[in-house]
Amino acid sequence: MSEPRPLHRLFALSWSDFFQGTTFQVEQEMDLSLKQQFVDLVLVRQGTEPMARSLPDGFEDLAVHNLITFKSYQEALDEWSIWELIGHFASYRKQVSPAPWDLVPQTDFRLFAVCVRYPQNLAQQLPLTLLREGIYEIQLGTLRIRVIVVNRLPLQEQNARLLVFSPQLDLLQYGREHYRPHSPETSTLLYKLFKAYSEDPEMAEQLKEFVRQTIDELLQELPPEKRLEGLPAEELRKRLSPEERLEGLSPEQVVNALSPEVLEALEVLVRQRKANGHSENPSAKPQ
Question: Is the pTM of this model over 0.85?
Answer without folding.
Answer: no
